[in-house]
Amino acid sequence: MTTKLTSTQIAWRAAQDIADGAYVNLGIGFPEMVAKFQPPGRQAVFHTENGILGFGEAPAPGEEDWDLINAGKKAVTIKPGTAFFHHADSFAMVRGGHLDVAILGAYEVAETGDLANWSTGPKGVPAVGGAMDLVHGAKRVAVITEHVTKDGKPKLVQKCALPLTGVGCVTRVYTSLAVVDVRDGRFVLIEKLPSMSFDELQSLTGATLHLDGDVADLIVPEL
């Protein structure tokens, strides 16, 4: 199979589309990596559901203050202008439409923009958590993910088989092979690895990939 992007490279590519000054929530785990790759001259304002806005980078090992954590229980730092508030106020920000971008992981994304990212079935995580608020409160919802599962099954599908986090919420997907937009109930291919043919990419995708103009090469630095 064609060489794919690493998780770090996927996170880098997603970071390039975050505007300067945007209010951004990053999902727990893999999406948190996006914060490391803000382009020069741009500074996002990061939000976490447990009540911090505008926090800084992760502290150096051994310098953590465990009173300062994000929603994923990871240590963060504060900087001038960082704000603290009750988690109810944090969710009011989300539900009130005050976040510009939410970036989350996914088990499945449907061509209609439906997202399944919290449970793989009866033995999965017991609750959807704040993700269901984020996907319908943020102005733009992006997903970062491998293009296929560990056993080679497509993660971009016609219809999600797993429990949904949100309906019709995803607008762009950054995968290990491509950048795909969700438009009018269709997957539209924006970028793909230059070493991969369209037909090869389509064979690894569980729904039809549509074209709207030229497809750019997905070029990412070695990280």
TrEMBL record:
Pfam families: CoA_trans (PF01144). Signal peptide: none annotated. It comes from the Bacteria. Gene3D superfamilies: Glutaconate Coenzyme A-transferase. Keywords: Transferase. Belongs to the 3-oxoacid CoA-transferase subunit B family. This is 3-oxoacid CoA-transferase subunit B.
